[in-house]
What does this fold into?
Amino acid sequence: MAGDTHDGYMFDRPAETMPRGDLQTLQLEKLKLMVAHAYANVDHYKAAWDSAGIKPGDLEHMEDFQRFPFTVKDDLRDAYPFNMFAVPREQITRIHASSGTTGKPTVVGYTAGDLDTWTDVMARTIACGGGRPGDLMHNAYGYSLFTGAFGYHYGAERLGCTVIPVSGGMSERQITLLRDFGPSLLGATPSYALSLIETAKKMDVDLASLPIKHAFFGAEPWTDEMRAVLDASWGMTSIDTYGLSEIIGPGVAAECLEARDGLHGWEDLFLFEIINPDTGDVLPMGGTGELVITTLSKWAQPMIRYRTRDITQLTDEPCTCGRTHLRILRLAGRSDDMLIIRGVNLFPSQIESVLVGMDGIAPHYQLVVQRDGAMDTLSVEAEALEGVEPHDYDGLAAGVSKRIKETIGVSARTIVLAPGEVPRSEGKAVRVRDLRPK
Ligand code: DLL
It folds into this structure.
């Protein structure tokens, strides 16, 4: 049975607590193999490295790696569908793809061995956040080309959990199963978990009275303010988990239950760098910039110096949990989600921090960006809490705009809508409606 979650259990203690020096030696060894494999088997890498005048044999020390070119999302699009594969298609056991809201989706492939690695690292991730053999997991990530559900599914099974593969959507059925099956773990996007709170209320189910102990959130930015709402409403401790399909899916990094202070990036499998997104220069530990990740054990599709566009910081300060792997700070957002409103840069999550928890305002919102002459303008569509009188909406809206101006320095028009009018998410929330002319 699931035990006390502060018991120090780790799924792979030798890997998770490896001294940093040994970890770095292991990284260099694995990197040399990965780079040779990529060059020999993927046309893109051969062409890119030949034109940069660099060969796998030039990688002697870790510093040499900075001479290798970055890989970007367009390289994957150009190789659509299967040209980034480093093994024959017949050796690919599974394919996933990004949703591809614009243009072609990005396709990723896994060998049977890669799936095994992913499953292990997901078991590690779930255990890191407090999951234990014997736990029952309600998996509300969408089962599809998206990696979220499959990653959690196989990882939880390997850890020794029972999995309920409910997928996203059909919220009333989700609440019925949560009530009747009594799972101890939840996997979902934070925005979907938020919308389930309302469904539960309508069905008169008190989520906080259910046995859920830990939720594994991720796949989108979410703030500490949102976490406070989710943890209180569900009566649980949520864990932030990070990943991206190009690298493996979920399971790249995870908070530990002990500290919940940054996400341990699994360094025996991935190499993390932070760069200045404008110059490409590698920043020292602690610098804020774009996260660049290299896979150290992905044979179907090695990703070498992949620019994630996610903006964050790394720390190698020791963690109270005893894991030695560095931590990635919780993500504010991607560089492509950053808005520039009258000269001020902002991420949608900054608006979330301001809105969530304000009196009379529900934690649902959408931002609308429009063009007015040469300037971009921002409107915030917020939502009133149940019971707020409609004649108070304008006053609330003025209060939100004022607080946004004071805390972020941006002028935004706020519209307060009636309860239920902001669209709800069943997977990744759409935070921005961009109405600027293309
Ligand atoms: O979202 C993988 C995943 C599934 C992670 C379930 C965690 C849980 P993609 O669909 O390829 O993969 O999207 C990856 O989502 O580059 C980030 O911009 C964003 N993202 C993922 N996790 C987080 C997080 C999955 N914890 C993109 N916080 C990434 C903020 C996140 N953003």
